[in-house]
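Batch job 17 of 40 flagged for manual review because the log was empty.
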Amino acid sequence: MMAARRRPRRDLLELLLDYVEELQRASEELVESLFETGRPSWDVREGCIEPLTHISVSPDEVVITMDMPFVRPETIRVRPVEDDLIEVVAEMKKAIRPRDLGVVHVEGELRKMRCRTRLPVPVEVRAMRFEFRKGILEVRFPRKKQL
């Protein structure tokens, strides 16, 4: 009978180094996706400006916070586009011209805020709740339970 060849065991240091390399690769990909270059935060043809957005992930839920001053609360629409993508659209109380923001080489008016945001982890989209208070929109999603 032939003795089965054992794979050499990896020591703890090798495992930690592999883990750190994987973590570094993942963080670089995340930073690249967050700071995409070449994508403006407004679209004059569509008349939209993108709100500042923050995503917070906890063990129980995902919270997306958007800075949406000057929007009419009754016009806010939050809808799932895909399982991991939501779109938020709201009309503004008054139009903003790029010139008002210090941009003199672009003409037009921005009349609504629109944002498409990817959800970083699986969530229960149908259980979404949102609240708008003092110019801040907070959208909450419970995380999907892992089996």
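Reviewer: the log was empty due to a logging misconfiguration, but the result itself is present. DSSP finds one helix and nine strands in the chain. Unflagging and moving on to job 18.
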